[in-house]
User: Which sequence fits this backbone?
């Protein structure tokens, strides 16, 4: 669930408030998000993907609230990982972030051929 | 209160709803799309990465592709519908060019078949806006409006930020609210609570194939990350470190469920090849998020796993489709995507992996186009009287109050999420579940109500109970095993049931089989 808005990074663009599919945030007068309904968070990481300031941290646990340490998270380099790996925004032209999603079908096929694999099965993508 | 009118109202802005909005707007209709969350991030496609059913328009290739899917479909699919979705998928995906950056393989060929979810839905939003549709985010629909003649006149809902009402009158309405996922923590599925199923049933629609609702997806324990590709290489271990003999994926969820019923299960991904590991963040950027945050290296360390139930999402049941335009049994109401039955194209097995997204893309466009056509013929009729027809969770039949929507939700989940109840169905436990759901439904219909924005939660709880009840009745009514519906007390297939099964009714649920094609033919010969 969403556990942290790094206030020192947030620029108050309200993108997260807008894109959150489950209405977790309220919008403060200055445009910043207020964590109003954390228990409704569906742990989808979409807010992080749309936050250009990399100011949001969604904890992986979707069942329980967990304590977070802002300083440790800032130091970890984890903020913005989804946006970077997705090759969005400033990463768009970076060839090391190109969209290789289409290779999924080939990966399934390799797994099927690997030792212990199920053999050539129906192509499968998720 | 906001009052608006449109030619076409689309309810739900996931994959199917956005394609419906595009098609209706391109057909010249004034379109409003209302979305519970945000059109672009909401729904199960936005967080995943759907591969479509992608076969070149060569008659032999197409026929062979259909034949391969007809066997697992176990007599419930229709090759003509399958051919139609193959065709529309092939011509539609390239039209996203300019809004989606398609990858190119080593040979320089554009790769259209599989798209990344967030980028796909972002493109669909842009396409819908470009076509002229109006999108209202955070505007969940609560109930349908009905004319005196039974046709659908639009819908009523609320604005999440304020709790205020909106009413939209429209010449035709498309339901694209997704499948019913029972809030199992399946990635991206929290909004998919079966609202469309309940709204349509209140208008008198039939629902088909709800017994085909046993799909699950693997995820690291306590997470939503149901991205299963890497698990095709997985090995599994129990708490003592002994290997559990589970066949490699993807079709091994029953064995995983059986192991989880015995105790915690741990996974090793050490067999994932080096080059795949390196490319994974570019293939599935969200797969690694939970591991990195837990400080776990999934390729060298074992981690605990669980299964997330999918309800009807990667099952195949939903609203009965009554005609070639994706009309339902109710005039003026169309169904698209996971809200509709996908038995026509997937039969008794999951349409996940290719068919479901091709169905969402196709049924969305057919429904959108037909809705535009109906609105053009019949007009908006917005001066005529129309009645809101929602009941459970909105207008209690008896003394209101005293029920917590979250408690109601948990009680419904308890009948349709435990692995033993879904994967190992049998008459005795199904009957007990049906009894408990009957009481829960009665209480919900009699007492559940809320105020302001909380009305959404109450209505969702009612929809969860309603869909859980239909799933349970349908599973009890199919007294055989077929496709993904597996009965431990009736393990064989029984050809008397080679037909689609309908569930109908809210006050009282009845099930009946649609006449099998073979029986119809015999009757015609006899008469
Ligand atoms: C992990 C995963 C992987 C998948 N991979 C594949 C694949 O590779 N290939 C494939 O073919 N299929 C795949 N599928 C299935 C595919 O994603 C679905 O078939 C497809 O998303 C269906 O689209 P939809 O629009 O019907 O539903 P969704 O995309 O779920 O959209 C439903 C929308 O309706 C909205 N809504 C709900 N209730 C209301 C309301 N009351 N008012 C307004 N809006 C409402 C929701 O917020 C949501 O945005 C996958 C599914 C999952 C879960
Ligand atoms: S998207 Fe990021 S920067 Fe914008 S308001 Fe939200 S947290 Fe702040
Ligand atoms: S993770 Fe998803 S549901 Fe949770 S706050 Fe972010 S966008 Fe909203």
Assistant:
């Amino acid at each position: 669930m969403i556990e942290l808005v790094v206030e020192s990074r947030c620029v108050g663009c309200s993108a997260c408030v807008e894109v959150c599919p489950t209405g977790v945030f309220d919008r403060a007068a200055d445009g910043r998000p207020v964590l109003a309904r954390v228990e409704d968070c569906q742990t989808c990481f979409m807010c992080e993907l749309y936050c250009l300031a990399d100011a949001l941290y969604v904890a992986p646990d979707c069942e329980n609230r967990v304590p977070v340490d802002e300083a440790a998270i800032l130091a970890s380099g984890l903020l913005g990982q989804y946006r970077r790996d997705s090759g969005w925004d400033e990463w768009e032209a970076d060839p090391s972030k190109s969209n290789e999603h289409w290779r999924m079908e080939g990966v399934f096929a390799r797994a099927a051929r690997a030792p212990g694999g199920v053999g050539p099965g129906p192509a499968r993508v998720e | 209160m906001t009052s608006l009118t449109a030619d076409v109202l689309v309810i739900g802005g996931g994959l199917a709803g956005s394609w419906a909005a595009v098609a209706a707007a391109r057909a010249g209709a004034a379109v409003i799309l209302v979305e519970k969350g945000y059109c672009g991030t909401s729904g199960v496609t936005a967080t995943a990465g759907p591969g479509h059913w992608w076969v070149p328009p060569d008659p032999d290739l197409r026929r062979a592709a259909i034949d391969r899917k007809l066997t697992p479909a176990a007599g419930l699919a229709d090759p003509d519908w399958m051919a139609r979705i193959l065709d529309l998928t092939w011509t539609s995906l390239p039209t996203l060019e300019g809004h989606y950056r398609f990858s190119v393989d080593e040979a320089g060929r554009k790769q259209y078949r599989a798209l990344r979810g967030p980028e796909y839905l972002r493109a669909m939003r842009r396409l819908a806006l470009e076509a002229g549709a109006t999108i209202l985010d955070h505007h969940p629909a609560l109930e349908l409006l009905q004319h005196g003649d039974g046709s659908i006149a639009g819908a009523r809902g609320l604005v999440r930020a304020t709790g205020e009402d909106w009413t939209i009158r429209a010449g035709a309405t498309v339901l694209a609210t997704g499948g019913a996922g029972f809030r199992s923590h399946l990635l991206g599925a929290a909004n998919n609570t079966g609202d469309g199923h309940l709204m349509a049933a209140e208008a008198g629609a039939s629902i088909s194939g709800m017994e085909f609702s046993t799909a699950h997806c693997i995820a690291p324990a306590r997470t939503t990350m149901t991205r299963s590709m890497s698990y095709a290489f997985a090995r599994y271990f129990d708490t003592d470190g002994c290997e559990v003999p589970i066949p490699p994926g993807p079709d091994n969820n029953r064995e995983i469920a059986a192991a989880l019923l015995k105790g915690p299960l741990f996974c090793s991904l050490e067999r994932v090849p080096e080059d795949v590991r390196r490319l994974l963040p570019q293939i599935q950027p969200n797969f690694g998020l939970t591991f990195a945050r837990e400080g776990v290296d999934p390729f060298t360390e074992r981690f605990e796993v669980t299964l997330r139930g999918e309800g009807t999402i990667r099952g195949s049941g939903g609203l009965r489709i009554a005609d070639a335009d994706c009309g339902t049994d109710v005039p003026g109401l169309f169904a698209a995507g996971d809200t509709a039955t996908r038995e026509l194209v997937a039969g008794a097995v999951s349409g996940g992996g290719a068919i479901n997204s091709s169905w969402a893309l196709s049924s969305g466009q057919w429904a959108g186009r037909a809705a535009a056509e109906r609105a053009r013929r019949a007009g908006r009729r917005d001066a005529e009287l129309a009645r809101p027809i929602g009941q459970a969770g909105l207008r209690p039949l008896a003394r209101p109050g005293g029920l917590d929507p979250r408690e109601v939700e948990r009680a419904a989940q308890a009948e349709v999420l435990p692995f033993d109840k879904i994967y190992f169905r049998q008459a005795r436990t199904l009957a007990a579940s049906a009894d408990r759901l009957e009481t829960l439904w009665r209480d919900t219909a009699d007492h559940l109500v809320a105020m302001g924005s909380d009305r959404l939660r109450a209505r969702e709880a009612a929809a969860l109970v309603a869909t859980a009840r239909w799933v349970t009745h349908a599973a009890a009514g199919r007294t055989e095993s077929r496709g993904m519906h597996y009965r431990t007390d009736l393990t064989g297939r029984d050809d008397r049931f080679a037909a689609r099964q309908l569930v109908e009714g809210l006050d009282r649920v009845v099930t009946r089989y649609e006449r099998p094609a073979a029986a119809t033919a015999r009757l015609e010969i006899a008469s």
Summary: The beta strands of chain A are 2-5, 25-27, 33-35, 56-58. The pocket of iron/sulfur cluster (ligand 2) is lined by residues A 5, 10-16, 31-33, 51, 53, 55-56 (CB under 6 Å).
